[in-house]
Every structure is written in C-alpha cells, then in structure tokens.
C-alpha cells in the first residue's frame, strides 16, 4: 500500500505566493511518485478559482486581515485550533509542516499523540525575522523556544537556502537532519511563449506581497523621479499586504495617475503582464531580519521573460548581477530610478526574454526542487 502524506499549510494553490506554489508542486510530485496526498489548508479569498485535480485538498474557513492575508496570530489561530482536530483524525504515515510556529506546535503535539513522523519545510526562521523587525525581546525568546522545540521534533528539516540552514543550526537543529533543496518557481505557469498578441508596454511590474519585509515604497519613490521623463510609463503594483494603503497614498502624492494597484492575480495573469513589461521589480528590505530571504517573485518574472530591477539584501542580488538578468542596485531611491530609466528606455526584445525564461527553467524549476524534496522523504521513510 502506498504511503500517506499529509501537507499542513495555511497557504496552498490557488493563492498567490511562494509557499502556495512550492507546496502545490510538492503535492504533484508526491502523487507522481505514488504517494497518497492529503492537504489540510484554508478556503482561499473570494473569487479565487480552485482546481485541485488529482489531489485530496481539505479546506477550512479562516480569519483574514484587511488585505486578505492569513497573517497575524489571531488569523493563525483560526487555522491552528481547528487543525488540531483535523490532523488528529487524518490517518498519515508522515506529515509535512510549514511555518508559522503556532502551526508547528499544533502539528508536533498531534504527531506525538498519533506517533506520526513529521518533516518541517523551512522557507524562513520565524524567530530570526521577528528579532530583525524589533519584536519585543521576551516574545522573541518565547518564539525561539517554541521554534526550537518544533524543529527538533521533526524527523528531518527541509531548508530552501544556505541562509535558512545557518539560522536552523543556530537553533540547535543537527546538521545531518537538514537538507537544502533550493528555491524554484513553477515554470509551467510562469513562462514566456512569444505570440502576435503580445504588445510590449512601457511598464514596470511589481507582483507579490507588499509588507515591511519588502519595502516596496522604494519603487514608488524611485518611479516618481522618472515619471515626468516617461509620461507614458506605468508602475503596476499587483498583490496584497499591510503596506498597500500606505503605498496608494504615496503614489497618489508622488506620481498621480501613473501608478496602478491591482489585487492578487493568477500566475497566468501575472505571467502575461511580465511578458510585455520593460522590467519587473523585486526587493528585500535591509535590516528587517530577512537578509537570507530569497525573493521568488524575481524568478517568476524572469521565467515569464522580464528582466528584473532588484534592490536590497538576499541571495537574489548576486544571482541577478552575476548572470546578467537585469539590474542589482543599492537600497537608494536614486539608484533604483536610474535602473528604471534604463529599463524604460531599452525595452527587452524577444530573444532577450526567451533567454531569461530558459535560464530559470534550467536553474530554478520548482518541479526540480519538488523532486529533490521527495528524495528526502524517500530516504527517510
């Protein structure tokens, strides 16, 4: 009989976001390799089109913030409290757990009661991030204790980068129980396929979450410096997050009429926007505890054929610079605006877009990352 794997996450397809795409690809790969997969997740925001073909996805309604995110401890608990019973009555041979820490605590308790091994998929380290953004020291200490308890109860921990692995080691996770599988994006959904209907446009596209981690206000400020020179250009901000209201006010003040905000869109819609953009935008703000973060939105846009303007910290900066995938600039309004000017002046041709897309397919396919992750399960079962 095939092994039963349960994936526990508040985010799953069709929601936009790295975790949702990553776990969707993992579920697909597990099924392809003969596992029976069940996903315990949430009901997506209104209007999202659900397509769970081939998967057993169980969804539960949860509280969301004003931006539509399951973000914040009240929102987390609206998922975690029912999860205790949902997971308790789900027969599993192994469980895959994602952050936040509260979900990990519930999962470890249930897995201990049912004597089920679990794997922790670490895209970040919550306590490190909390410390970086100035959360109360007592709260950070409690988070570290809980996170260490969750991680050390896992049969194995899967890390997305060496930076995450370093933080896991600092929490006392044994090195032989950590595997770095890398970061990838769904190149079947973010893809560049030239066609006659694509009309290049003078636009810069930001697609993804807008929060204090990303500091997307730098793009609005930088765009305002080139808006007069490029009156026919548009800054398109697609996504949700706690910073959206502030960004809308800032855009109305600095570049009225040239900045457009849209709610989260499907991967296919984002791909179409990237395919005709002068450049895509991505960032990780320095000094907020996410210096190790891998900005997957940059990979998504590259795969869809858009060169990237990147500012801030994280491994994506050197990847873009070393592989000629766009512009890597300092965290400075003027530096970003100069890159924007170059992008809007020198629009990428079809050959350039095809080359960018092929680079991502070769180096950062989510399907390859998912296969590496399943290899960990196969070795540990």
Q: Report the sheet with the most strands, covering strand number, pairing sense and barrel closure.
A: 7 strands, parallel
* Strands side by side in the biggest sheet: 3-2-1-4-5-6-7
Backbone CA Rg: 21 Å
What is the percent of helical residues?
Answer: 40-55%
SS element count, helices: 14
User: What structural category do the secondary elements indicate?
Assistant: alpha/beta
What name does the CATH topology of the largest domain carry? Rossmann fold
Low-confidence stretches: none
Give the N-to-C terminal Cα separation. Answer: 14 Å
Return the CATH architecture of the largest domain.
3-Layer(aba) Sandwich
Order of helices and strands: EHEEHEHEHHEHEEHEHEHEHEHEHHH
CATH H-level superfamily title of the largest domain: Glycogen Phosphorylase B
Residue fraction in strands: 15-25%
Overall, the morphology is globular
Task: Work out the count of structural domains.
Answer: 2
Quick one: CATH class of the largest domain? Alpha Beta
**Quantity of strands, as a count:** 13
Q: Mean pLDDT across all residues, rounded?
A: 92
Organism: Halopolyspora algeriensis
Pfam family, one: Glyco_trans_4_4
Keywords: Glycosyltransferase, Transferase
Protein name: Glycosyltransferase involved in cell wall biosynthesis
């Amino acid at each position: 009989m095939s092994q039963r794997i349960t994936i526990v996450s508040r985010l799953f397809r069709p929601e936009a976001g790295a975790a949702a795409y990553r776990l969707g690809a993992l579920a697909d790969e597990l099924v392809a390799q003969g596992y029976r997969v069940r996903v315990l997740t949430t009901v997506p925001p209104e209007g999202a089109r659900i397509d769970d073909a081939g998967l057993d996805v169980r969804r539960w309604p949860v509280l969301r913030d004003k931006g539509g995110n399951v973000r914040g401890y009240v929102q987390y608990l609206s998922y975690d409290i029912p999860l205790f019973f949902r997971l308790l009555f789900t027969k599993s041979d192994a469980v895959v757990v994602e952050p936040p820490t509260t979900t990990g605590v519930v999962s470890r308790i249930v897995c201990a009661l049912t004597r089920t091994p679990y794997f922790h998929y670490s895209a970040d380290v919550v306590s490190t991030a909390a410390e970086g953004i100035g959360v109360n020291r007592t709260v950070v200490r409690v988070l570290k204790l809980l996170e260490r308890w969750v991680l050390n109860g896992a049969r194995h921990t899967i890390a997305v980068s060496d930076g995450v692995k370093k933080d896991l080691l600092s929490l006392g996770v044994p090195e032989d129980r950590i595997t770095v599988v890398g970061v990838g994006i769904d190149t079947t959904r973010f893809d560049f396929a030239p066609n006659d209907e694509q009309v290049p446009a003078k636009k810069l596209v930001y697609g993804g979450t807008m929060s204090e981690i990303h500091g997307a206000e730098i793009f609005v400020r930088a765009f305002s410096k080139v808006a007069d020179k490029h009156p026919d250009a548009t800054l398109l901000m697609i996504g949700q997050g706690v910073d959206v209201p502030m960004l809308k006010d800032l855009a109305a003040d600095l570049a009225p009429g040239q900045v457009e905000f849209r709610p989260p869109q499907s991967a296919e819609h984002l791909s179409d926007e990237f395919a005709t953009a002068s450049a895509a935008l991505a960032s990780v703000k320095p000094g907020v505890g996410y210096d190790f973060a891998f900005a997957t939105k940059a990979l998504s846009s590259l795969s869809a054929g858009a060169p990237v303007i990147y500012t801030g910290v994280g491994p994506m900066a050197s990847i873009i610079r070393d592989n000629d995938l766009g512009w890597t600039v300092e965290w400075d309004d003027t530096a970003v605006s100069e890159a924007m000017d170059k992008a809007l002046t020198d629009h990428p041709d079809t050959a350039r877009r095809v080359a960018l897309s092929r680079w991502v397919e070769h180096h950062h396919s989510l399907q390859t990352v998912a296969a590496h992750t399943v290899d960990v399960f196969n070795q540990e079962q």
